[in-house]
Every structure is written in C-alpha cells, then in structure tokens.
C-alpha cells in the first residue's frame, strides 16, 4: 500500500471552506463519466459494495466530456472522486484540472472497445465502409469540387450497393467519448481521401443523425422499435443484445473480441478512468475500489468484465498499467500530447 501524497488535513486546507469533519460526511465514492465504461464500472461498483465493508459507490453516466468537466472543477466533497472515459483525457482538460487545483491525477487504462454500427437483426446483413458512413453523417459533402449541404436521405443514394432504406443514425452527443472517437476514427481518418477538408468532423443536424443522449440502452430500444435505424455505441452493448441486434462490418471487418484486440477492426478505442488522488484517505474506500477494478479478476484475460464485453489488454501491458496505478504515478501533460 502506498503512502498517500495528500493527507486528509491537506485536502481540508486546499478546499478552504470544506473541513475534515464535513469531508467525512460523504462516505460513498462518487464516480461519473463515460456511458461506454459505465456498465463495466457498475459491475465493479456492485461487486465492491457486496464484498467489502464500504458503502456501494454512487455512479452516474454523464459522458466522457461531461465527467471530465465535473472531475476538473476542483478538489472537495462536492466534486467526483473518479471519472470514467472512453477516450484519453485531452491536454485542455488536463490544463483545466490544474487551474482548478486538481494537480495530482492517476490515469488507469483498463482495456479496449469497438464502436459498432448496429441494426435490428430483422434486416439483411449490412456492409459499410468508413467513407460511406462519413457520407451519411457529414453536415456537408463534396460535389463538383464544392462542399454542399448533405443531400443524402437514403443509403442507396450514397452507393447503389447499399439498401434502399432511409438513413437514420442514432448516435452519441457531443459530451460523449464515443462521439469523439467516432469523429476521429471514422470521419478524420477518411475525410481527406474522400474529398473533404482535412480532419472534417462536422456532423449533420438536419434530423438524419439523431443525438440520442448518454444512455446507450435507449438507443438499443429504439433500434428494436424502428428497424430502419442504425445505432452507434460500444461493442459491449452489442454483446448484451446479440439476440436482437446485428453489427455492420466496417471496411470488411466484423467487430469481434479478436478483431478489436488485434486492432484489425478500424473503429476501436481505449477505455480509461481517472483518480483524484487528493480525495484518497478522505473519502473511504477509493484505494480498495481502484485495486478491485485493476485486478485480473476484473480486467484480466479471463476476467469477469471480459464476459461483459470488455476487450482485455495484453497481459504485459495490463501488468504495466496496474503497477502505474498501484504507485499512483502522476499524470503529466506530456503523456497526453502527440
């Protein structure tokens, strides 16, 4: 067990109006962040509450961006202890944390996940390329050397090989790490080669792309109600609903545990959580919760979260990250650059 870098008294002094006594009034760990990481973290939360003497943590799905915003608001019991993210913290978010006194942060990498485009299994199998997806979701598209408002309302208008079916994409909001990763891995990666300005990520707002909030289960329900719709969400939700949903192949690759872990599937990303080190030793159980989450029993190659859809890290990489977290290695801005 490490020696905490910030004592309870130091936290009380940092917060100013927050005394040690009031700090101890919050007995439950507070966790916010990614809707994609939420089911994995919720599993750990429930296991932690059932197998330890600590209260079950309070966990909220706010989206990666929303969670990091709350996390970086400052130090004190009114702010979260941990935030989950389906993308890495941005340098600008790190700067905001530092400006608000959140100067000691530990970063934890837990595994990876694929972003799937899923439809009702009542439809014929769907094969998409990232360029076709870009053409469906972009606010503007190139035509005759100019960028024009996206005219496509039917998949077959983009490519005659695609279904004669209305385009309706149910996707994550701007606060979501899934949205960030989708923009980067689908739109930025293919934009220039498809005649768009480099790194084009403007998503249409004419009703074809439907911002469906942070609750991916609601997207799943809407796909089941509207068989024309296609949902964008994490692979774990596909695993949970594989009896009713079917994922499109992307660039000819089906999303599976193997294709995602081997980086063959083109729309895969890493999953993270961030610890506010100043809260350890003040809010009970943070160290024990983190240790449980990082344990092989949860995120190892045969871990419980793998059964829930988490793609595990290679064992050597997992051990390296466990060591970093155990030793509470401070996150540096340079870690996030490049």
Question: What are the SSEs and their pairings?
Answer:
Layout: H1 8-15, H2 20-23, E1 30-33, H3 38-51, E2 58-59, H4 64-71, E3 82-85, H5 91-99, E4 105-120, E5 127-128, H6 130-137, E6 140-143, E7 146-149, H7 155-158, E8 169-171, H8 177-191, E9 209-211, H9 216-225, E10 230-234, H10 235-240, E11 245-247, E12 249-250, H11 257-261, E13 268-276, H12 286-294, H13 296-299, H14 304-307, H15 315-326
Parallel strand pairs: 1-2, 1-3, 5-12, 8-9, 8-10
Antiparallel strand pairs: 3-13, 4-10, 4-11, 4-13, 6-7
Report on this model:
The longest helix has 15 residues, at 177-191. The chain is an alpha/beta fold. It is globular and about 60 Å long. It has 15 helices and 13 strands.
Label this structure with key terms.
9-stranded mixed beta sheet; disordered N terminus; alpha/beta; two-stranded parallel ribbon; 36% helix; 13 strands; 338 residues
Short description, anyone?
36% of the residues lie in helices and 18% in strands. The protein has helices at residues 8-15, 20-23, 38-51, 64-71, 91-99, 130-137, 155-158, 177-191, 216-225, 235-240, 257-261, 286-294, 296-299, 304-307, 315-326; strands spanning 30-33, 58-59, 82-85, 105-120, 127-128, 140-143, 146-149, 169-171, 209-211, 230-234, 245-247, 249-250, 268-276.
